[in-house]
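Worked example 2:
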Amino acid sequence: MNTTQKGFASVVLIIALVIIIVGWLGYFELTQKSSVTTTSSPEKSQSTKEDQEIPWKEYVNLDFGISFSHPDSWQCKTYKTNLFHPDWYQTICDDDGTWSGDSLVAISVPHTTNTRSLGVSTIRSGTITGQNSSTITKTIYHSDKFEDLGSVAYIFSGSSNMKSYDMGAMYGGLDKPYRSAEEAEDVLDTIAKSLIIRSN
């Protein structure tokens, strides 16, 4: 190997080392900023103990026959989701009025049978009791591809006096409404227990 080739190889090696070091420092800095941002930014939701201290209010939409309790700072809206089925709708809630990103909660009526997405694992499943002694199935999912991401899903299959529905929210990551499944459950369990969707 001549001197020019040795010099070129040394330059390439130095550049590669600089890129690796800068990448590692950038990752470390981003991780530190993320943890600081998460702890210092206003939270979209509160834990169960804090829920008892913060005010809650009732969302009622008589046109669609839906009502439920939610944290006072939230804004909710309901809209039709299917032109051919006028009784199909969704209610979503947000805390800043921009309606961008993932909702704090999304409620879809009616519940439609759909298969679980590939790349998602069930962490746990159980039931809770809602209005009129309704049994609601709650399932916690976790993404197989993205370590921090998952969802909390509630399904009510319907009864003679209440329509079926799906309800849920995402958790994990910096841009999701809840940091963990437990934080999401603390808020969403209360909503599910208060939720009424009247049958026509």
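The first strand starts at residue 56 and ends at 61. Strands lie at 56-61, 66-71, 75-80, 89-94, 105-109, 120-129, 135-143, 150-156, 165-171, 196-197.
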